[in-house]
Amino acid sequence: MDNRPIGVFDSGLGGLTAVRELEALLPDEKIVYFGDTGRVPYGTRGAEVIRRYAAEDCDFLEENGVKMIIAACGTVSSVAAHIIHSRSVPCVDVVEPTARAAVEATKNKKIGIIGTAATVHSGSYAMVIDCLLPEAEVYAQECPMLVPLVENGWIGEDDMIARLAVERYLAPLKEQGIDTLILGCTHFPLLVPHIAAYLGEGVSLISAGAAAARACAEQLSASDSLREGLGGGTEFYVSDKGQNFVKVAKTFLGRECEGVKVVDMTK
Description:
Elements: E1 6-10, H1 16-25, E2 30-35, H2 47-63, E3 68-71, H3 74-79, H4 81-84, E4 91-93, H5 95-105, E5 110-115, H6 117-122, H7 124-132, E6 137-142, H8 146-151, H9 160-175, E7 180-183, H10 192-199, E8 204-207, H11 208-222, E9 233-238, H12 245-253, E10 261-262
Parallel strand pairs: 1-2, 1-3, 2-9, 3-4, 5-6, 5-7, 7-8, 9-10
Helix pairs in contact: 1-11, 5-7, 5-11, 9-10
């Protein structure tokens, strides 16, 4: 048994989808979450900047004594995987477990991917899918406007801007006849009502945050490192607590987000 917490980080609040899944899967675990809200988004930045941010985020979590790190950020997982997997504690990224789940879900072998520009241009998901299912047809679409929509709370089922943005981005994938869609950014599950309504019931939606959380749970169980019988809980850290933080965080978690601490990443 290992009583140290699990560390989770993301460029903003999207990684809270992984936290929500972890809390459901492993209720006895302590979790430390860091959202780099002061430097969001990562997806439009250059590769060297993304790698530096990823290293700094991991440094912060390791300083908090975590036993495992989840990089709940599609951009970091795609561009800086070697950075996070070189740390002193085991790390889980979102790419491999999410790609594997998509391969298991597809029936017609046509898989779509949506993510930030950095995620799509890296080709990370396509490379893993090609190794697992070489005959698969993979179609990727960058969706730069979806992250700020989520971060600003423009996600309601009756929100016309969210609906039009989703339809604009997903139209090419729908035309290709995909039956599985990877939500390659942990913000995107909050847009599932719009995505599902547009693509229809025949398309499986694969959440990167949920897949990473399950992979973390499996690894901890396999290494006999689970925390048991002591009660869990989550500590929240951000680099900027914006005006919409509480509202958006509650939407991600399905509950109030209390006791949030602000970290000065310039130090």
